[in-house]
Amino acid sequence: MNVAIIGCGVMGKMHAEMAVRCGLKVVVCADNFQKAANELAQKYGADSTNNSQPALSRDDVDIVVIATPTTTHAALVQAAAKEGKHIFCEKPFCRTVAECKSSIDVAKEHGVKLFIGHVVRYFQEFEAVRAQLQQGVVGEPGFAHLYRGGAYPAGQDNWFQNYKLSGGVTLDCMIHDLDWIRFVFGEPERIFCQALQRSNPETLDYSQVTMRMKSGLIAKVIGTWAHPSGFHVKIEVCGSKGMVQFDSNDVPLTSERRGEGAAVGTIVPSSPVLKSPYLLEWEDFLGWLEGRHEPRVTPEDGLHAVAMATAALKSAETKAPVTL
Amino acid sequence: MKDVRIGIMSFAHMHAFSYAASLNQLPEATLAGIWDDDPKRGQDMAKQFNTQFVASLDDFLASDIAGVIICSENNKHRALVEKAAAAGKWILCEKPLSPKVEDAQAMIDACKKAGVGLGTAFPCRFIPSIMAAREQIRAGHIGEVLAIACTNHGQNPGGWFVEEAESGGGATMDHTVHVVDVLRWMLDREFKKVYCELGNQLHGESLKTDDLGSLNMEMDGGIQVSHLASWSRPQSFPTWGDVTLEFIGTEGVLNVDAFNQKLDVFDDANMRHAWVGWGDNPDLGLVTDFVRAVAKREAPSVTGEDGLRATEVTVAAYKAANAKEMVSV
Ligand SMILES: NC(=O)c1ccc[n+]([C@@H]2O[C@H](COP(=O)([O-])OP(=O)(O)OC[C@H]3O[C@@H](n4cnc5c(N)ncnc54)[C@H](O)[C@@H]3O)[C@@H](O)[C@H]2O)c1
């Protein structure tokens, strides 16, 4: 199967690599920013274009990867679906719930498979936590505390800083945890959020959520794009019989360079795994396309995640809880 | 040095152990006696801490002690403070000063009227990492503070703590006031608004109060603050709990994990992995400050008003949880 990459930034590059590792061929790379398209296309011997429409309508394309800024997802998903292509769309699925709905409808109408990249469902540490919960180690889970983030993401033309476009850390980053919480603990009841969304004079976002699930579980979720550097993830789930915790600062490998140069004095931590969660996500997607199994993430999951993040943003604006 | 004679009223709250030990450690102070409405407990404690047990409250308050530390159940704080104040004693009262705003106010009024100093036992102000964080923040190290995320987790204390009539509330009552006080002290700002989800879900039927509060608050100037108060740490957890604070500022971030000065101890005999703290004892700082206040006839550093402010925020949290909306403090 052949792949078109739409949006050749951070995630577009990642997905091109994963697709190739799965034995697929990247045949065309599209990006408004021609240079980005050219660079990625060159790496894989693909064509390049600054116009997504001809890329996703090519006869030799089977799968369209959408890795552009969030507000462009709906139009691109629908355009690809109308061309009969299967779609791998980055999270957040769309900017609004209504866009998610219409995109699901269009995909159904044209009989194409639509996958949303909620990659956290594939992270080994998150799966290990889920396994502990399934084994009943913590008993009945009563609360979960999730934390994610670090430095402000760059993004082409600083698109993340336009909070109307990106939804800030809440919609773009915390959505991973909101989705995972729903994946593991079921549907949400009520959500309260405070979000900094600051762009002047400093560019910072910090989002603090309290969420009540229908099961009664209380979740506290913190998302940060307010740190000077780094990336930090923490998970804690507490229940009647015990507790499970994960902290990404605990790593099996660190390195630091001696001598001259920029990297000196910086301790570089890493936690290597044999299979990247992005690869696992691709294998799941392809297994679904080949009819081998159902995917771990459905388009409806993507919609619900957007609904939760949207509710959080509304709560932050109104300073009142939003019932889902 | 002048001998400052201090008495302890009730050992219902386990912090009394640490205050008694601190008094015995201080050369300038004497643990002059213990009164307790549970005479057996009072006698045992008097023996353990090498002091006398006084069975009658009137005799106890008529003695030459200059100050008292009150460690009764929360609901008894007011009556004991009022009695001690009327007897002219300086008072350090265990937190929360009271679970009720009107009681806390009455205690402050009684002490003012009697001309005695009233302190609230918030030992977190005497933790060196918290003191250093305060200095850094006030020196502008991270610029203007915009957002804060806190936790104060612990284990289920059981006993009267879980009887609402005596404690006034569960984990949220127990574990909100410390961070509220620390933040007010660090930033010189008050809390304005509170939202809270309360849970009673980690201990099943055995617990009638809340064991978890997830709070979102707003301080003066719009600082957004989240807090988790809980009795969620399992029995097998290596320590009692934590106090953590993450500050987001315009020029940087600052993190406090106040009890993270610890040894990992692996004990085969008890099949236990424990964290053993090696840092300075904050209770010693708190008691030293109280003894100084008594000697100088001054107010303790952490006052009754500080206790009242923290109670106001906690009471608002319970109100918000019932109303399912953000409420004003
Ligand atoms: N799953 C994850 O771990 C993860 C991590 C980061 C970002 N994301 C998501 O991936 C998506 C892309 O984020 P990114 O970090 O790669 O951003 P990025 O800015 O690095 O890349 C986006 C690229 O899209 C291009 N582009 C913009 N509009 C376009 C259009 N209409 N047609 C074609 N190209 C267009 C830009 O020029 C840019 O090169 C976002 O939805 C983001 O939320 C996911």
Q: Let me know the CATH homologous superfamily of the largest domain in chain A.
A: Dihydrodipicolinate Reductase, domain 2
Strand arrangement, largest sheet of chain B? 11-10-6-9-8-7-14
CATH class descriptor of the largest domain in chain B = Alpha Beta
How many domains comprise the coordinates of chain A?
2
Q: Give the neighbour order of strands across the main sheet of chain A.
A: 12-11-7-10-9-8-15
Quick one: overall form of chain A?
globular
According to CATH, what is the class of the largest domain in chain A? Alpha Beta
How would you describe the overall organization of this protein?
The complex is a heterodimer of chains A (324) and B (329). Helix content of chain A is 35%, strand content 26%. Chain A is built from 11 helices and 15 strands. In chain A, the strands form 3 sheets. Chain A has a 7-stranded mixed β-sheet with strand order 12-11-7-10-9-8-15. Chain A has a 6-stranded parallel β-sheet with strand order 3-2-1-4-5-6, sandwiched between helices. Chain A has a two-stranded antiparallel ribbon with strand order 13-14. Chain A has 2 domains: 116 residues, 3-Layer(aba) Sandwich (Rossmann fold); 183 residues, Dihydrodipicolinate Reductase, domain 2 (2-Layer Sandwich). Chain A is globular, with a radius of gyration of 20 Å. With 324 residues, chain A is an alpha/beta fold. Chain B is of the alpha/beta class and 329 residues long. Chain B has 2 domains: 142 residues, Rossmann fold (3-Layer(aba) Sandwich), CATH 3.40.50.720; 175 residues, Dihydrodipicolinate Reductase, domain 2. Chain B is built from 11 helices and 14 strands. In chain B, the strands form 3 sheets. In chain B, strands 11-10-6-9-8-7-14 form a 7-stranded mixed β-sheet. Chain B has a 5-stranded parallel β-sheet with strand order 2-1-3-4-5, sandwiched between helices. In chain B, strands 12-13 form a two-stranded antiparallel ribbon. In chain B, helix 6 packs parallel to helix 9 and helix 9 crosses helix 11. The longest helix of chain B has 20 residues. Chain B starts with a strand and ends with a strand. The chains are: A alpha/beta (324), B alpha/beta (329). Chains A and B meet through strand 7, strand 8, strand 9 and strand 10 of A and strand 6, strand 7, strand 8 and strand 9 of B. The site of nicotinamide-adenine-dinucleotide has 27 residues of chain A, from helix 1.
